[in-house]
Each structure stands twice: as C-alpha cells, then as structure tokens.
Amino acid sequence: MYEPETGTLHWFTSSASGANGCVEIAHLPGSARVALRDSKDPAREPFRFNRQEWAAFLIGARAGESGIPA
Fold first, then answer.
1. 67 falls within a domain
2. Residue 59, SS3?
3. What is the DSSP string of 28-56?
4. Does pTM surpass 0.85?
5. Residue 38 structural domain
6. pLDDT at 30
7. Region of residue 28 (phi > 0: left; psi between -120 and 50: alpha; otherwise: beta)
8. Band of residue 1 on the pLDDT scale cut at 50, 70, 90
C-alpha cells in the first residue's frame, strides 16, 4: 500500500528511458529516500531506497546487473 507521501510526489522519468517509458524516480520529502516506479504501471507500489541502497542500486544498474538470479 502507498504511504501518503507517494501520492503527491513529482516523478522524474529516467534520462535513459525511451519513448515508451521505463522507470521514474521521486525524492521523498523530509528524508534522503528515493522512490522508484514503473512508468507503464504508476499505480503499482513503488520501491523505496535509502541513500546507501540507492547508491548500490545505481552502481549495479550501471554495471549491467539485472537482479534476476541465473
């Protein structure tokens, strides 16, 4: 379920997204957390990351990690 803080966020589309969309992020107010959602399914619960988790996520994404076990 959405926390009240995600209902009024300003979502940014990834600069790597194509015309069909991809992911969007929003900075959660009053914290150093980030929310991440699928731009094709914005009603779905977003993932939330603290500063350290977000940094690790970005490092993995840039390295080509999918997060899907082989």
1. no
2. helix
3. PTTSS-EEEEETT-TTSPPEEE-HHHHHH
4. no
5. 4-60
6. 84
7. beta
8. very low
Q: Which two tokens stand for residue 11?
A: 């979502």
Are 38 and 47 within 8 A, CB to CB?
no
CA 22 → CA 3, 17, 39, 52, distances in Å?
A: 22, 5, 5, 23
Kindly report the length of the chain. Answer: 70
Is the distance from CB of 9 to CB of 35 less than 8 angstroms?
A: yes
pLDDT digits (tens, 9 = 90+) for 3-57: 545 667 899 887 766 666 688 999 998 888 999 998 888 888 999 999 999 999 8
Q: How many domains does the chain divide into? A: 1
Domain-located, residue 65: no
- Six-digit token string for 44: 């779905």
